[in-house]
Amino acid sequence: MKLNEKQQIQTSKFLSLVLRHKPESIGIQLDAEGWTDVNILLQQMIKHKNPLKLNELVELVLSNNKQRFQLSEDHSKIRAVQGHSSSQVQREYPAITPPDLLYHGTASRFIDSILDQGLIAGDRHHVHLSADLTTAKKVGQRHGKVMILLVNTKQMHTDGQLFYQAENGVWLTEHVPVQYLTLLE
Ligand code: HQG
User: Fold this and answer.
1) What CATH number corresponds to the domain at position 44?
2) Residues near ligand 1 with C-beta < 6 Å?
3) Are residues 31 and 69 in the same domain?
4) 116-132: per-residue pLDDT in tens?
5) Which residue has its alpha carbon closest to ligand 1 atom 14?
6) 46 with 9, same domain?
7) Is the pTM of the predicted complex or chain greater than 0.90?
């Protein structure tokens, strides 16, 4: 049996919760790079009333619209590729040169604070940036009335700030100071 679309979304949200934020809530452990054992994950999901079969997990990982999760080659381990807040994880992404410009989609109610403090990671380990406007709009819409900020990544990089890219293409950095931000009207 394949998971239907609703079940896929629910399961993806559950996996995001335990693989990014609260592994302890179902008694699993993540290593520093975010990996956890697939068999233990599936056992603990049964115990916590979210049963999932191995083939359903594999299908979900491969078909996930944002490629949020990654399986090891032998399918023995799984991780979320970005978005972590758990202190068990401290991913060491290689620093790479970003494109000259990246986008950040947010909600109008955050703008005053962002123009005061810059973009901060909050509970997550990094600020998330998008490579294109369409993606940034989708990210911002999750929070309310969408506003787009342009990030002068070329200048940030020249000034020595580090950038990383998760396996699913999402760009990451520690903090974006205000001077590199332009609000797109
Ligand atoms: C805002 C999703 C006030 C920031 C997406 C955002 C992404 C500030 C919110 C990934 C601020 C945090 C991450 C400041 C930043 N004052 N608000 N100084 N600095 N903010 O969800 O970037 O579907 O933690 O603008 O696609 O929205 O989960 O971050 O609105 O890739 O795979 O604080 O999550 O991916 O919200 O999204 P989030 P995000 P998934």
Assistant:
1) 1.10.10.970
2) 16, 66, 68, 83, 106-107, 110, 113-114, 117, 119-120, 122, 124, 128, 139, 143, 170
3) yes
4) 999 999 999 999 999 99
5) 114
6) yes
7) yes
User: Could you tell me if 109 and 179 lie in one domain?
Assistant: yes
For the beta sheet containing 146-151, the strands, ordered from the edge strand earlier in sequence to the opposite edge, are 102-107, 146-151, 181-184
Domain that holds residue 55: 5-80
Ligand 1, atom nearest to 105 Cα: 25
Distances (CA, A) of 54 to 31, 44, 46: 21, 13, 12
Query: Domain count of the chain?
Result: 2
Q: Assess whether 74 and 127 both reside in one domain.
A: no
Distances (CA, A) of 19 to 15, 103, 111, 182: 6, 26, 29, 33
Note whether 113 and 177 are same-domain residues. Answer: yes
**What tokens appear for 14 in the block?**
């559950």
* 86-120: pLDDT as tens digits: 999 999 999 999 999 999 999 999 999 999 999 99
Pocket probe for ligand 1: among 64, 85, 106, the residue whose CB has the most ligand atoms within 8 Å is 106
Residue bearing the CA closest to ligand 1, atom 13: 128
